[in-house]
């Protein structure tokens, strides 16, 4: 099978970095002028397609930004929503609920203890105030 039957896209292995440069140059030299010109046209076409796709992507990103602005969605609002959703997820866990209940009970007990201590101190101060030594 000669080259015209194989087509321009051959399955020859592409040399990796560090491989023999002379072998690469030899493979390039075996291309006919017609094959080189066809590859140049193909290269130009691929570069043009890449440029077009880059422009389309940029236009779509701009349009996306405009839509988000119209909807009032910006990065700060998005972060707030993510944080709120994360907090909601945390508060829904059983571990959070158990911890919250435990802390609530501890808070109630601490409040009762402080109240009791306050009552004892108030009573003692009243006793001192009403004592004959203080009068």
Give the SSE map.
Elements: H1 3-6, H2 21-29, H3 33-71, H4 75-91, H5 94-130
How would you describe this structure to a colleague?
The structure is a single chain. The chain is rod-shaped. The chain starts with a helix and ends in a 5-residue tail after the last helix. It has five helices and no strands. Helices cover about 80% and strands about 0% of the residues. It has about 140 residues and is mostly helical.
Count of alpha and pi helical runs: 5
Spans where pLDDT lies below 50 across 5 or more residues: 1-7
Q: What's the rounded overall pLDDT mean?
A: 82
| General shape | rod-shaped
> How far from one another are the termini?
125 Å
Radius of gyration: 40 Å
Instruction: Name the helix and strand elements from N-terminus to C-terminus, one letter apiece.
Output: HHHHH
Percentage of β-strand residues: under 5%
Largest sheet: none
Count of strand segments: 0
The helix/strand class is mainly alpha
Helical percentage: over 70%
């Amino acid at each position: 099978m000669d080259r015209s039957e194989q087509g321009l896209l051959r399955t020859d292995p592409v040399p990796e970095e560090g491989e023999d440069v002379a072998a690469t140059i030899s493979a390039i030299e075996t291309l006919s002028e017609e094959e080189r010109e066809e590859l140049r046209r193909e290269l130009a076409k691929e570069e043009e397609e890449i440029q077009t796709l880059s422009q389309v992507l940029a236009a779509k990103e701009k349009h996306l930004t405009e839509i988000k602005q119209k909807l009032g969605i910006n990065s700060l609002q998005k972060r707030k929503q993510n944080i709120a959703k994360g907090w909601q997820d945390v508060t829904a866990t059983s571990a959070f609920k158990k911890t919250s209940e435990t802390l609530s009970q501890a808070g109630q007990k601490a409040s009762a203890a402080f109240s009791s201590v306050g009552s004892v101190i108030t009573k003692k101060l009243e006793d001192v105030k009403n004592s004959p030594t203080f009068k």
